[in-house]
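Appendix B, example 12.
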Amino acid sequence: MKKTPPPQSATSLPRAPRDDAGSRSARYLITMGIRIACFLAMVFVTPYGWYTWVFAAGAVFLPYFAVVIANVGEDTRGEAAVSPERTLDAQSSSASAPAAPTASEPAAPPVIRISETPPREPES
């Protein structure tokens, strides 16, 4: 039996560009804050040793990583769009009429079609 995909919902939509830009700005500011901390630690932590070079490397290379991390947007490999058309099971597609709903499956609501005709002009 063919498994039907789950219905698409509003929560499966990608994030709004404004929210995405806000999270990218926050990542950039956090990384630059760590860079400032590395620079201050490089200057004020004494006696100088091998860790001074680690702080210096952080102060020099973190701006590059901050920009790269900030420019990476959200993962766009989300779920594919679900077709809104109703799919039939393999069992009911071979029959000429769809199968009757069972006790565990609720009946589909009836389709109501309304067509309007323009009003007629009064006769004189």
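The two ends are 66 Å apart (CA to CA). The mean pLDDT is 76.
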